[in-house]
Amino acid sequence: MGSSIERSFVQQLQEHQNLIHKICRLYTNNEDAHKDLFQEITIQLWKAFPQFRGESKFTTWAYRVALNTAITLYRKKTRTISTIEFDNTLHKVNQEEYNYEEEEHIKMLYQAVHQLNDIEKALVFMYLEDKDYTEIAETLGISEVNARVKMNRIKGKLKKILNP
């Protein structure tokens, strides 16, 4: 890995680390698990970065890698061993502290979303991030129509959870 690739990666990760934090928050229940998942996603992004060709936006690509990592790797609790080369790169990213003191209604929404399945969580997450159905469909590998139908079902599900 050349230093220009590394610089590019660190810059992109720094700019978009909030989306990774949000995914971590969605798929974990405490700060330690959040940090572990954040590191795991960062490792997977770093490993996959040489294959990132810029055909899609960095964020679309990063969502796909991060969500896949959260859903598959992390859920199965299989860990990859981080290499020294990677650890050196990680220290170049100024990790912003993630604010856990969120308002009560956001906590309630997250509690409700935690009850959804993995794909539903991913869909809600991207919807709340103002992603259009084209990007949601592309990221999740489903059709746009399917994404819309699923989203409508999820909205109904969340209404029932939040207003029993």
Automatic annotation (TrEMBL):
It comes from the Bacteria. GO terms for molecular function: DNA binding; sigma factor activity. Pfam families: Sigma70_r2, Sigma70_r4_2. Residues 108-158 form the RNA polymerase sigma factor 70 region 4 type domain. InterPro entries: RNA_pol_sigma-70-like, RNA_pol_sigma-70_dom, RNA_pol_sigma70_r2, RNA_pol_sigma70_r4_t2, RNA_pol_sigma_r2, RNA_pol_sigma_r3/r4-like, WH-like_DNA-bd_sf. Residues 14-80 form the RNA polymerase sigma-70 region domain. GO terms for biological process: DNA-templated transcription initiation. SUPFAM superfamilies: Sigma2 domain of RNA polymerase sigma factors, Sigma3 and sigma4 domains of RNA polymerase sigma factors. Keywords: Sigma factor, Transcription, Transcription regulation. NCBIfam families: sigma70-ECF (TIGR02937). Belongs to the sigma-70 factor family. ECF subfamily. This is RNA polymerase sigma70 factor. It comes from Flavobacterium rivuli WB 3.3-2 = DSM 21788.
